[in-house]
Fold:
Amino acid sequence: MTAVRTVLGDLPPAELGITDAHDHLFMRSAALPGQDLDDAEAAAAELRRFAALGGRTVVQWSPFGMGRRPAELVELSRATGVQVIAATGLHRAAHYPPGRPERWYPRLADLFVEELTTGLHTQDDPDSPLTGARAGLIKVAGDFHHLDAHTRTVMTAAAQAHHRTGAPVGVHLEHGSAAADVLELLCAGLGVPPSRVILGHLNRFPDLGAHRAAARAGAFLGFDGPSLANHETDWRLVDTLVSLAGDGHADQLLLGADTTSAAARGNPGLTWLLTRLRPRLVEELGEEFAGAMFVRNPARAFAVEWVAGS
Structure:
């Protein structure tokens, strides 16, 4: 059955609606001390503002071991009416305490499959109890302009989990770099179809030639912001999207806020996507294009023909 897997269950892709394709409601990282995202009330308020503007779905890219708080994701989705797609997978090694990811390596593929098919672990521990909420995305990460040993280990496990379930693979590109390396490993090397790969943070590396190459390869291209991490390249975003659409890639483009609550880190919040960016895209390319980026493309990117038994 083709479905989008949310924390409240599977949905027909047509019910996804307007989607923030890349965000973080909860997150904890060893690389970002003092910047934990752990305010459920702020997240709920932001989701309600998003819903009031017509937003229907948020894709939460925080992977295993980074304070996802799956039980609260379920509560937030029920309370606000916003559908939440959760992620399994692992981030870059720098986001975990030293030595911790290595202890998980022997069981990574099974861990990812378990979270996609049975339920997310309640704690940042593969031996913790499972919730009933399942992941709908495998999140992995490249390193800056290269793929280190940790990345290759995690991507190999993610590819195995994809082949066992059909789940899409979302890729954090560090500062938007190494897209070609990622596609070479995941697709050419490990057999993941490019149409099942979502490249994130491309706006942080505004090389239109690299974007076109990734699009020609068949991947989904994720552009996210605004945020303090992206502000130096945000001004190029609309022109980049217009150029890629003009090249025939409008059906491969995804948008995310990647800002969590408006209060977090001084960012403008999810609503910027609909109050500021969407009107610009309508002005430049029309309602049809805006509808593709916010509704139809996410419905295809996150819809899965789930393998029997998953």
